[in-house]
Amino acid sequence: MTHLWQRLLHHSTEALPVVPEPPKPQVATRPTSEWEPVPLYLEIDPKENVIPALIAASVATTSVTDSKLVLKHLYVQNPEAQLVSVIASSCATAVDDGHFVVKSIRKRVDQH
């Protein structure tokens, strides 16, 4: 038993042989991703899209009437993400009574 403890606790004074590291195989370059995420919201320019800007301004002015509103960023819901969410929800409710969580929506990148 003492021989075991001596081996574990004391380092050997003999030099270990140096083993050269084998070369790594070359991996063919692949595209970075076959799938790209679909954003839930799309950023739009408030100056070009007047209707969403007016809606945001009217919502903001109802709470504080004597304030100035400057829209730097304006986001609208992505219709593609909405459609996928509705389809996934209807399929999940038809299949099982369990709960589900959609963490991300991705679409395949065309390889042209």
TrEMBL record:
Protein's organism: Lactiplantibacillus garii
Protein name: Uncharacterized protein
